[in-house]
Amino acid sequence: MGAMSQRHLTILTGASRGMGLAMAQQLLAAGHDLLCIARHTNDALAAEAKQAGRQCEQWPHDLARADGAATRLDTWLQARDQRELASVTLINNAGLIPRIAPLDDIPVDQLKDAMRVDLEAPLLLTSAFLRATAAWKVPRKVLNISSGLGRRAMAAQAAYCAAKAGMDHFTRCVALEQAALPNGARIVSLAPGVIDTDMQVQLRGADAALFPDRGNFVGLKEKGALASPEEAAARARLPAAPRLRQQSGGGRARLRRERSRWLIGQENAEDAKVTQRTQRRHSKWFSLRPLRHLCALCVLLASSPARLHRRKRAERAEETFKRVFSASSA
Ligand SMILES: NC(=O)c1ccc[n+]([C@@H]2O[C@H](COP(=O)([O-])OP(=O)(O)OC[C@H]3O[C@@H](n4cnc5c(N)ncnc54)[C@H](OP(=O)(O)O)[C@@H]3O)[C@@H](O)[C@H]2O)c1
């Protein structure tokens, strides 16, 4: 493999603005080729890619209808030659908040779109990505952009909270699945913190009578506590940062703290690997099935008198209950 193998490919949803746009710009600067999916394309991003000599394809697509995008992604990936790539990554970043109000006060169409864009689309795109690249030998990664609200409940945010919690949990499941494969993908779900984007404008602009936490979001803006999209994008790319063991001393401790605060999924993959190692060790050294059966039989025999005693006691209690019941109802 020559110079062609140095191309990193990233598929990124919601790169038309906000944190997605900042991530796209940083990825271009780091030498990634991009495939971006959002309802709108971004001409400035296309110009930046051209100037940097990177490929940047932009598909205008409404992710509330994600099945079409997933099928198209599957076909598109299958037409790639993995030998030209150093890595392939999917970042599910596109997201939306429906009308900010109690659940029974949100139009059904908005609820459906929020669940589709925030949960169904990431799930379908992840499925298509994993299927199309299953036989690839290059590192494969999925980064799901979740939210603190996926881990903490908030009134007037039921659909968004539920979708992000669903995203976190499917990430955990897929991390377990992929850990069992020879070249399984690394998948994590990350809560990027509060970011100064259109989404925060929407939260601050909500009706205070319907949204008890509105004041907190106003306060965060006034205190200057929001991260810029660029800062948040840089932190979101942390999963691609050097592995823990390549860091030294304080750096490693800081990275570990950051990861545990931000990431979901990787710990499941690591747990799954430990479980598999333990199972392998057990099947190698402790596959003494007849001995296990003998032990089980001994336990059963030893517990028989106790069981008999418990059954008799239960029968006596039942008789007493019947007696008392028939006496009181008489
Ligand atoms: N901002 C925060 O404080 C915050 C906090 C925690 C988590 N997050 C998460 O971070 C991610 C990025 O948020 P952000 O603040 O950058 O949001 P944003 O500025 O509102 O941008 C949202 C992005 O998602 C795309 N998108 C929205 N609806 C779409 C649809 N139906 N189909 C396709 N694309 C759609 C938008 O593109 P088009 O409009 O062109 O379609 C846009 O590129 C989201 O997943 C959000 O939940 C944000």
Structural notes for this entry:
A seven-stranded mixed β-sheet has the order 3-2-1-4-5-6-7, sandwiched between helices. The longest helix has 41 residues, at 289-329. The protein contains eleven helices and seven strands. With 330 residues, it is an alpha/beta fold. NADP nicotinamide-adenine-dinucleotide phosphate is lined by residues 14, 16-20, 38-40, 62-64, 93-96, 117, 145, 147, 192, 194-195, 197-200.
Short recap of the structure:
This protein has helices spanning 18-29, 43-52, 66-78, 108-132, 158-179, 198-204, 214-222, 229-236, 249-262, 266-285, 289-329, and strands at 7-13, 32-38, 56-60, 85-92, 140-145, 186-190, 263-264.
Question: How big a fraction of the residues is strand?
Answer: 5-15%
Strand line-up in the sheet with most strands:
3-2-1-4-5-6-7
In the CATH hierarchy, what is the architecture of the largest domain at level 2? 3-Layer(aba) Sandwich
Bound molecules: NADP nicotinamide-adenine-dinucleotide phosphate
Uncertain regions spanning at least 5 consecutive residues: 240-246
Which structural class should the secondary elements be placed in?
alpha/beta
* Name of the top-level CATH class of the largest domain: Alpha Beta
How many β-strands, per DSSP?
7
Number of helices: 11
Sheet with the most strands, sense and barrel status = 7 strands, mixed
Whole-number total of structural domains? 2
> What is the element string, with H for helices and E for strands?
EHEHEHEHEHEHHHHEHH
Write down the overall geometry: globular
Mean model confidence by pLDDT: 87
Helical residue percent band: 40-55%
CATH superfamily of the largest domain: NAD(P)-binding Rossmann-like Domain
Radius of gyration: 27 Å
CATH fold title of the largest domain: Rossmann fold
Termini Cα gap: 91 Å
